[in-house]
């Protein structure tokens, strides 16, 4: 995807900085604004700040009372939060573990191997960072691999050929699982919005699905940096898989930053700007 008239500027991978065993953070990564609200988010121990959890099996249940109750929870989560976690989502747990393992291997590749699937001028796909258009721009403390998964006609053949067969196989299967989950959620949202579910199918059945793999290396002065800048997602739904149970993801609720407590096996769903 082109970023406009100014192509992205290539920046070093953060993991390569860490390999140099740095003790001071390069200026481009240091945030000068107060980050206390990010590093010390609101206490989420009260029910008011418990991110909703939607059970997909209950949502699809043949028992009307159970299905209607879960549908109401979904509607409320979308309306009040714009975020929720999903459990019993139907994507095989062994596939997810395989995918996690292969993603770790991808980011552990030697730099020379990563350069074979590096971002090209004017394109965000491949290894790199997003939206870097100025040499004065502050950078996120993270590395990224970005790839289009669906529709298949929009894939970059050189990127799929450049990753390992095991990762390619896992991404293929995970991509189909995500599409199925997406269509279930959009169909139920359509009903809550008094839309014809077929209309949602027509809008998104040939949807653009892109995968952004992020790696956040340990930082010697974590209080000075941000893993990823605050943002909203432009698409319909963003479905987030956290590779471990480390807290880091935060969402904005009533003007406060609320940490997302990882639930083993769950996926996090963000309702994007397109749906809102």
From TrEMBL:
<dbReference type="InterPro" id="IPR050295">
    <property type="entry name" value="Plant_2OG-oxidoreductases"/>
</dbReference>
<protein>
    <recommendedName>
        <fullName>Fe2OG dioxygenase domain-containing protein</fullName>
    </recommendedName>
</protein>
<dbReference type="GO" id="GO:0016491">
    <property type="term" value="F:oxidoreductase activity"/>
</dbReference>
<keyword id="KW-0560">Oxidoreductase</keyword>
<dbReference type="InterPro" id="IPR026992">
    <property type="entry name" value="DIOX_N"/>
</dbReference>
<dbReference type="GO" id="GO:0046872">
    <property type="term" value="F:metal ion binding"/>
</dbReference>
<keyword id="KW-0479">Metal-binding</keyword>
<dbReference type="InterPro" id="IPR027443">
    <property type="entry name" value="IPNS-like_sf"/>
</dbReference>
<keyword id="KW-0408">Iron</keyword>
<dbReference type="InterPro" id="IPR005123">
    <property type="entry name" value="Oxoglu/Fe-dep_dioxygenase_dom"/>
</dbReference>
<dbReference type="InterPro" id="IPR044861">
    <property type="entry name" value="IPNS-like_FE2OG_OXY"/>
</dbReference>
<comment type="similarity">
    <text>Belongs to the iron/ascorbate-dependent oxidoreductase family.</text>
</comment>
<dbReference type="Pfam" id="PF03171">
    <property type="entry name" value="2OG-FeII_Oxy"/>
</dbReference>
<dbReference type="Pfam" id="PF14226">
    <property type="entry name" value="DIOX_N"/>
</dbReference>
<feature type="domain" description="Fe2OG dioxygenase">
    <location>
        <begin position="207"/>
        <end position="276"/>
    </location>
</feature>
């Amino acid at each position: 995807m082109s970023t406009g008239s100014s192509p992205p500027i290539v920046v070093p991978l953060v993991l390569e900085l860490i390999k140099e065993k740095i003790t001071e953070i390069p200026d481009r990564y240091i945030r000068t604004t107060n980050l206390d609200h990010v590093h010390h988010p609101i206490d989420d121990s009260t029910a008011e700040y418990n991110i909703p959890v939607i059970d997909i099996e209950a949502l699809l249940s043949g028992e009307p009372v159970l299905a209607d109750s879960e549908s109401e929870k979904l509607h409320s989560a979308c309306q009040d939060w714009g975020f929720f976690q999903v459990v019993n989502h139907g994507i095989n747990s062994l596939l997810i573990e395989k995918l996690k393992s292969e993603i770790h291997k991808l980011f552990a590749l030697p730099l020379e191997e990563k350069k074979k699937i590096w971002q090209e001028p004017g394109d965000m796909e491949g290894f790199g960072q997003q939206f870097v258009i100025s040499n004065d721009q502050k950078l996120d403390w993270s590395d990224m691999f970005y790839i289009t998964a669906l529709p298949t006609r929009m894939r970059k053949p050189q990127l799929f050929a450049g990753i390992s067969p095991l990762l390619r196989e896992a991404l293929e299967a995970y991509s189909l699982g995500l599409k199925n989950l997406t269509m279930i959620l959009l169909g139920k949202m359509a009903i809550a919005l008094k839309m014809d579910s077929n209309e949602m199918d027509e809008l998104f059945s040939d949807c653009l699905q892109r995968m952004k793999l992020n790696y956040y290396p340990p930082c010697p002065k974590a209080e000075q940096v941000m893993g990823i800048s605050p943002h909203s997602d432009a698409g319909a739904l963003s479905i987030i898989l956290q590779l471990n149970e480390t807290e880091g993801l935060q969402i904005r609720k009533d003007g406060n930053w609320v940490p997302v407590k990882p639930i083993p096996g769950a996926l996090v769903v963000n309702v994007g700007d397109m749906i809102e």
